[in-house]
Structures are given as structure tokens and as C-alpha cells.
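Regression report. Comparing outputs from two consecutive submissions.

Submission 1:
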Amino acid sequence: MIAQNWKEALGHQIPEERAQEIEVFAGQLELRRQNKLDEKVFAETRLRWGIYGQRYDNGQRYDGQKTQTLTYPSGGLTKGPNTLWDAPGMQRIKIPFGGLTPRQMEVLAELADEYSDGILHVTTRQDFQLHFVHLDDTPDLMRRLAAVGVTTQEACGNTVRNVTACPLSGVCHDEQFDVTPYAKAMAYFLLGHDDTQDFGRKFKTAFSGCEQHACGLLNIHDLGLLARTKEVDGEIKRGFTIFVGGGLGTIPHQAKVLTEFATEDEILPIAQAIARVFARLGEKRNRNRARLKFLVEQLGIEEFRRLVFEEREKLPHDDRWTAYLPDVPNFVETPVRPAVSLNGQVRPEGFEAWYKTNVYQQRQPGYVVVYVNLPLGDITSSQMFNLADIARAYSGDNVRTTVEQNMVLRWVSEADLPALYSELKAIGLAEPGINTIVDITACPGTDTCKLGIASSRGLAGELRQQLAAKLPTLPDAVKELKIKISGCFNSCGQHHIADIGFFGNSRRSGNYLVPHFQLVLGGKWQQNGGSYGLAVGAVPSKRVPEVLEAITQRFAQERQPAETFQDWITRLGKKEVKAMLEPFTRVPDHDLDPSYYSDWGDTREYSLGDIGVGECAGEVVSLFSMEIARAESTHFEGLLAIDEGKYAKADELAYRAMLLAARALVRTSYLDVPDIPDKIIDEFRTRFYDTKLFFDPFAGGKFAQYLFQRHENPPTNPDADSARKLVEEAQLFIEAVHTCEAKVNGSIIGSIGS
């Protein structure tokens, strides 16, 4: 565990840029506490740092009309009415391409122990989530993650979400090449990038090394990159087919090909160009149509392609586009144990069933990938501590999460499998069934999501338990089916691309509500989410296991040799499917069987009273509002520095606050101004000061002079008086920027991007 004085112990390990960003967030947190920062702006800010409000249910119900006592894992605080500060929320943690080291795993376990409820949840975007985290704890949590190279920045909100990639990248038999270094480069290039800060909704990116498997799920992403090679002048070149406009949600869209082959040196500038087109033309008012898929649909792929490549030609050069490429040929993962065959090893009880489903033979002889099966995507902090030790011994720094909410240990020597299995079994992580019907994906549903209608996790747990008991006797065709469950129609559980999908809804029976699940059949998981299933009818939640049994039994009996589930459903036809479901749709009267009127894992009578406003993307907040909030937060840090007697720091922060405010104003008319003081000053002077747009009739132009004078004549040794004076001047300058923006906003909107 980390020493008590961990702030000092970790301080030197946090990259300066990350440390400053976290301090800015901490300042905004305090400003909001003092009611000096607009709630909408702060809501988008905290979402961009991965912090959601969450629902309180299943023993943690929270009614905003009442005062209750809640117990918090981080200290047993007692809070009153439901406000931002009262009830802990969810903290999402970004894990680009799912890559983890044992040390990072240990820190995640520590945070789950100290700030959460002792459970880490793996998401369908290879992230981790901690629930019941108090808002006041988040800056310290972020610092501890940053010290081991992990961030929560832009894990939520209207931003570029975690960049995902196949967990078998680099060891897969079918891939063109290892996409890991490209996914990592994309993740950190887009993180906090100026051109990704003005979206109307979230933006999801994925990489895949091959076309036929599902590990990357390119077809359901805003931006998907599929590894390709091409012979050019007798030389094999690496590149990618780039897909755009995919997505699930309430209305799923298949991604379309933007370009069949983009060379490896072009993928970052093309992604940047896509982001700029999306920011400029994407919907901002109606969030239900604000994803990239709707823009591609509206414009058509030909016009969207033209705009993207036109934008690409206008981009200012950025060395980061290719800075990582010289290291790509040298990217290797180092095993910790030599490759030795499994032959002759004593195999413990249960090993064979686990080996059959949970072990993948790498293309490198003698090495395997071991899948760690996490029911419902959950792993306890104790299990994570132990798994870190196991990984260190057998896999090294080669651990990844998967989009199916599991984890993998890569580069395991075959000879070590019996010992590794025994150690996993000892900590409850050796369940077989990976990539089988038992391996069910589920979103949080009514457990913690404000939009949850039915208990997706409760249903998934019940189905998993029933299926696991009979897995050995199931026909192979049934074993291979995919089940995915969402608590509402938003498809966070990816029900559209499952063989058998479910999403939560409700129906009324007399004076009562009954939890139901809509059945979705015929989705295609393979070929990167190759096709989407269709809803065929709703059944009561408590009858879903019977429905599943009826469908799978009939499929096993009627399928023709080599016939897929999708083909069988098509052959069966919707009319026959509907007739098959009909006996399961009836709901008995409440007095005859009240069990139908409660949900899985919840003894209370079912109600929609807990549903609230979802925070998946938050409200759309203007780019100026977000950037001026950073200026105000930096100014607040300057005030704190004065109280601490750190006058040089206060002077620098006040100057930085004015620069940020000036840049926020400039970017309303010129998006490409770099974060370089001389450039900001030049653009601010030309566009706003010389034109007298930035001009207060009572003060003339003196507020601008505060910035100019500090820029041209920085003090050599600021004292208390000079620092205090500059902090006060910075406050006046920021207020003047607000006034200027409000005055000219309507007249300059048309020139954005000029």
C-alpha cells in the first residue's frame, strides 16, 4: 500500500502537464463549491474527467426529497439532501487499448479499497469504473493514477472516449500487423486536443488487426481503423482502411468506408480532420442526433469524404503526426518466462474445461494468452491485488482488458498453465466459459445507471448461473452463441450485435408496472460487428430464462449442417419467431404471482421512480464556456498561491489565466491559435484589441494592457504586492473577456475556422 504521506511521495512521478490539468480541475471543483462556476459548465467538466452521477438502488436508494444517511467507503460521511456533494458517483478510468501493468493493477486495487466499494468494473470500452466515489476524493484519485501513467481525462462527456483495440494484437494468427502502437499514439494525440473540444456528443475510436474477428468491432464506432498492407514500388507498406459513422444506441448505423487505404503516417492527421468536420458541422442542439453517424447520414459518405480530405489539406503541420513512427518497428513485448511446451505437465482438476475455453495459442510458439473470466465484468480489490502478483510472475507487463468485460494475461509459457490455473482458482478467477454462451455482456442497468429501466446485471447473473450448470451438455452450436443485455434501449450492453440480445423496457398490467426485456435476434458479433439484429417482441423479465431455453433448444434441433444462428433466424421468419414468443408474453395477475412484478435481484415491487436524467454525454456547453472556465480555475489557483506565500507561482498563474481567457476569446473566431503566448497575444491584439471589439467605455483599453504589460515585462522576483496586483488585474481581464464575448458572439459565429 502507498505510504501515508502519498502526496509528497507521488508528486515527482506525475508528469508536469498532467499535474497541472488535475490542479485546474481541482480549482474548478472548489469554484463550483463556492457557486462561482456555472453548474452546466462544471457538469461537462467533471464528465470530461470521467465523473458521473449515479443512481442509488438495490440497498443504496436515494430519494432527493428526503434526508437520509448514506455510508461511504471513503470515510462514512453523513450527508443530507441529494446534491452534487451529497451522494458519491461513478469514476471511469481510461485504459487505452486495454493495456495494463501489474503496478497499475495494484494502484487500481488500492483506489477501489480506499475510495470505492472494493469492486472494479471492466467496461465494454476496456475501461475501469469505480462506483460510490465521493466527488471530493476525485482529484487525489486522479493524482495517484497519473503517477503510474493512467488518466481519467475525457473518459466521459462530449469528447474522444477511450481508444480500444483487440486484446490479441501482436499475438493473433490472423492479423496483418500489431495495431497496439498505433492505438496508443491515436489515444494520446487526441487526448485534450484543441480540435476535439467542441463536439455535440461523444466520439468512439477502435483499431483492429484483422477483418474476420470481432475484437475491434470497427463497424459500431465513429472512427474505426482496420490494419492493411499494400505493395508500393515493390515495398510492403503498412496502412489502414478507415471507417466512419458507425454506432449502436437507439438507432444503430453500420460504419462506412472513408478510404480503403491510408498510409500509417496519415492516420493521425485524418483523424484530426474528421474531428474538425464533426465539431464544425455536427448537431449541437438536439443531442439525440448529435453523433457522427447522423452527420455522415445527412451529408452522405461522398460529401463527408470530400470535406474531410479538404480539411486535411488545410491542417497546420504537426510533428506529432509521425513522431511515434520510428519506434513502431522496435515495439516488442517482453515475456518473463521462457517458452516451454505443456507436454507431460500434471493437470489439476478442472483444468481441461478451463483450458478448452480460456486459453488461446499465440502465433509465437510455446506462448499462450490466458483469459481471466470476470462475471459481469467485476473483480474485487483483493482479487486484483492477487492477479497483479500472478501477472508479474507469469505475464509481466502484458495484461489487457477486453471489450467483453474480461482480462487477459499475454505471453504465458505453456508449461506454466497448470500452476497459473491453480493460483487463479485459489482467488476465484478460474471459471471456464470464455467466448461461450456463458460469457454474457451486460451494462450497469438499474444497479447504478440513471437511465436503467430493467435489471440487466440481475438478468445476466441469473442466465449465467443457469447456463454454466449445463454448459458441458450444450450442443456446440449453442455454446458458441453470444448473449448481450442492456438495461434500456441505448445499447450500452451492445445487444444489437449479439446472436441473442435483450434490452430493458416495461409494460403495464392493471395498476402495476412489470419489468420486461425486448428480445433482439440475429445480430452478428464476428466480422467486427458485421450486422445488427432486430427487436422481435417483449417478454416479462422473469420469463427470459424460459424464452432463452426455447430458442436455443429449437435452434439445436432445427439447424441445418453449418447453418449459423443468423441464417436460421432468417429462415424461420419473423412470423414464426413471434408465434414462438407468444406463450411467454402473458403476465399473471398481481395477486396470483407477485414475483413477476419485481425485477431480478430486487425484492421490491418494480417501479420507474428511480429513473433520472442520464449523464452519458451531458449537455452541450460552448467551447468558449469550457475554455473560460479553465481560465477562471487557473486564476483561483493564483489566489490560493498568494495565501500560501508563493508569490512567483501566483504571478505565473495570474498571467496564465489571462492567456487562457484571451485564447478562449480568440478561438471563437480562429480555432487554430496555438497555446503559445506570443501567438495568443498577436491574435488577440489583431482580432479584438486593434479592432476595438475588446473595449470598455469606462476603462478604455486598460484591461487588455494588463495582459500586454505582463507579457512584455515579466517580473524577476514577484513580491506579495505585485503578485496580488496581477491577480486582481487578471480577474478584471477575465470579466472583460466575458463581456466582449457576449457582445460580439452573434456577429463572429460565421467566421469560425477562418
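Submission 2:
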Amino acid sequence: MASSISPASVRPAVLEATAANKNMGPLGGLKPFLRPYRGRIGLAILFLVMAAVSTLVFPVALRSLIDQGLVSTDPGTRVMALREHFFMLFAVGAALGVFSAARFFTVTWLGERVTADLRNAVYGHVVEQSPEFFETTQTGEVLSRLTTDTTLVQTVVGSSLSMGLRNTVMGIGAMVMLIITNPYVMSQVLGILVLVVLPSLYFGRRVRKLSRASQDRVADSSAIAAEVLNAIPVVQSYTQEASEAERFNVSTENAFATAIKRTRMRSFLVAFIITATFGALLWGLYQGTQAVIQGKITAGHLGETVVYVIILVSSVAVLAEVYGDLLRAAGATERLMELLNARSPIKSPSNPKPLPPTRGGSAVTLDNVSFRYPSRPTHAALSHVTLDVLPGETVALVGPSGAGKSTVFQLLLRFYDASEGRVTVDDVSVKEASLEDLRHRIGIVPQDSVIFSANALENIRYGRPEASDADVIAAAKAAFAHDFITALPEGYKTFLGERGVRLSGGQRQRISIARAILKNPPLLLLDEATSALDAESERMVQAALESAMRDRTTLVIAHRLSTVQRADRIVVLEAGQIVEIGTHAKLAAAGGLYARLAAMQFDMQVAS
């Protein structure tokens, strides 16, 4: 019973959720997340029905108390009869308490478990999406759906749905009993209730649309908050705190206005359902009092009718509230299903081709490769690029910003697929290899070092989770990070803060380099790996990188030309095309783009 949807089963659950969503409406997407707990659901329904039956038995016991416990003329007989009937009433109340408690626990467990599974499935699916997905989807939007929307689903599965089913059973049961006691009158009441349902369906659709809009506005606020909080130093350095607070305020006011529209419509819906139902049932109750006056039914019979009317009215009132919750949850589920329905264009082939063993690094080939980013379809990031990198070779990619250097790395890691041409690693097309094998073979040190909210040891171990502490420390020494790490308050166990706020830029970069060294891949990608280092640290890390480059293929992106002078070859890119290839000495003497870049950088260094 305690099992949950495992990460391995996320993909089938996602696919089934998509089909269910299309065939059964928004809440149908929850079906694959409920199925593993059929036993619990059956138990919850059993407890729910027993609690409802206990409630419905109460008026029958009350009728017996009035008609039989109070009619005897003998005081002794009357006392014994009353005692017997009160014990019966207590037994009904005790059964109601026990079954209600069991229902509450079981249903709450289901709500918590299904919500956790849904949250895990959505998150597991999102992290598999290619960068193209995140070009158009804000992180704050995803976080809002993972938190706010799943909380709404939890409310429905763990509370509202149970209340709705329980009150449906009680309402139907009360109505059946009322029909049995006075079929003529209740047939009139049912006719009136049918007229209540039709307008309720119309207003319900309005509430659902407004609920979806309300969740979208809340997500907008979350997106703004996530964006600004991740850029606090920039916001404060430009003294934009007040304007950002105002922007967030406008977003929350929009969310508030939309929520008020939804609440107003939902309030009108609840008021209409309860008022119309209450009026219809009062008509039936009035007819019952007339029947007592005329001697057609007993006082106990009338008491029973009154209690059933109260049960029916209260059930309808609760169902009106639950209906509103279901409509809100439908909007939230739609938004979650949109994330689950997202399909990454980058995925492993069904029958991947294995990558051959490597010795001395990986071979890399770009054969007539062209590429345009999906968000910029008219601009060619690469245009007919052909490049062969031999195993063990160090190749530097240089050129002005926007020349296409980082795009080469993106295609090698298969974050995107080339529009034209072929990209291969060790003579295997990146499209034919599994993503796990391909990316396991590649190590990258990005320009913006990523530090997780963990200690130094775990941040470095991210490169190879199974590595021992000794391996981590060896990698840190190779990256010249050991000294500053041991100087931290708790050494390697020191918590580095969110995004490594406790470290300098150079220290973060050396942690990132140590992570790549620990991974020990045959193909190493260095994207401005020394950009955040001072001159002394750069010399240390350059020595570490030169050591790390041995026996592996290395591609280096660098604007500081001093870091690529010892590369075997330098590839100069401009406007997505290769314009020069050669050594530093050869290109400097050629008088082309590389020579101009080198001259400008040299002049700047002299001026400084």
C-alpha cells in the first residue's frame, strides 16, 4: 500500500494521462495516478458508504423512538422502550463516528499519496525536456504548477471528492426515503430539482474557465518572483527594488481581480443551488405537515421526514461547495496535464547504437552542419560547418559573440538537433546514441558555474555520484580547489549556500572544474572555464586543466586568447561559419579575424 509511482513508470503514466485527459475531461488525467491504489480507494468507498448509511439510519431510529417509545401508557414499559431506543441511537452515532474517522484517514492518505506521485511525475517529465521547452516556459510558471496546482488537486482527492461522494450517497438515500414515505409530493419536488440542475451546469462552466484564468494569474506572479529573486544583486545594483515590487504588485492585483470574479460566480452558483433546493424541499415538508393534520401519517413519520429533508438540503449545500472545488481542480489539472503532455523533440532512440570504447579521447565530427534555434528560426546560428576533431586533440573555438561557438557544444550534447548535416561522436551519430551514453561521455565546465544548495563534497561528487571522498578530494586538488575548501568553516562539509553565494566567482569556477575532472570523460568541453579567475588563479587552473586534458579530446571556448594559444588547432567562427583554422602563430601571422581579435585584446591589456 505504501508504494508510489516510481521514476521508471513516469513515462507510461504520462502517456496514459494524456489519453485519459482527452477522453474523460480534465480530471480524467488523474486516472493513472489513482489506479495503483485501487485497494485503498475501495476501502475508502466502503467506509464512506457505511458512514452515509449510518447517517441515513438515524431518522428511522428517531421515528421508532417517537412512535413506539412515547406511545405506551405504562410508565415502566415506556422507560424500558425509551432506554432501548436511545441505546439504538447511540449505536448509530458510534458507528457513524468510527466509519467517518476511517474514511477521513484513508481518503487523506490517498490525497497526500496521489499528490506526491503527481508532483513527482510532472517534475520528472519536466527535467527531461530539451532546452527548447525552457525557451518558452518560465521557471516560475513550472514551480507554480508543481505547488499551487497540485495543492488544489490534493484538496479535491483528499477531501472534497470524499465529501462529495459521501453527500451524494446521503442525498440520494434521503431522497429515496422521502419518495417512499410520500411519492406523490416528492415527484413534484424532483421535477423542480431538475430545473435547478440545468442553470447550475451553465454557471459551472463559467466557474471552471475563471478558475483556470485565476491559476494562470497566480503563476504569472510566481514567475516574476522567481526571476527577480534569482537576480537580486542586479536588481539592487540598479536600484530597481521599488519598480520590481510594483511590477509584482500589479501581477498580484490582476490575480486578485480574477479570483474575485471566480469567487463571485461561484458564490452565485452556491446561493442559487441551495436556495432553489431548499425551496423545493420546503414545499415537500409543507405537504408532509398537511398529511399529519389530516391523519394520513404519524408524528414519528413526520419527524423522520424532517430529518431526511435536513440531510438532503445539507447534502446539496455541501455538493454545491464541492462542485466549485472540483471546477477549480479541473482548471489546475488542465495546467498540470499541459506539462505532462509536453513532448521533447530530443529523446533517445528506441534501439540506440552503442558508442565504441575510447582510447586517448573521443573523435568528434560536424559534417556540413546548419542549425537555427526554434525561438529564432530566421537566424542561422551555424551554417554549413564542417569540422573533424581527432581523439586526444585540443581544439579552441574563438570568435565574436554570437558566432556559434556555444551552439557547437549544444549540438554535441544533443540539447538540440542540427537542422542539416550530421554530428557524430566516435563515428556514431548523436541521434543514434542513447542520451545517457552520449552525455556520460562528455564533461562540461560552463561559463556560469552552477553550485547546488549542498556542501562542497556533494557539489563536486555531482560529477560522479558513486565516487569516494578520496576521489572527490583528489579532483579538488587537481582543480586547485582543495586549499580554499579546507579553509572553509567545516571544510568539505561546508554548506555553500543557494547558487554558491558563499563563494567567490573564481572559487565557484574551480568547484565546477573539479566536478568535470571527477567525471573523467573522454570528451571535455570548456566554455570560458577561466573567465571568472584572477591572474594567479587562472595560472593554477590552467595547469590543472592542462593536466586534465591529457588523454582526452578537449574543445575550448575562450575570449581570452591567452588561454588557447597552446591548443593544437584554433577554429575561428564568424556569423555561424568557420572562417579560419590553424595554430596561434599561423593565424596571428595571417592577418585575418583572429589576428584582429588578438591585436585588440593585446592593445587593451597594454592600455590597462
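Expected: both submissions complete independently.
Actual: both completed, but the second showed a warning that disappeared on reload.
Relevant detail on submission 2: The radius of gyration is 35 Å.
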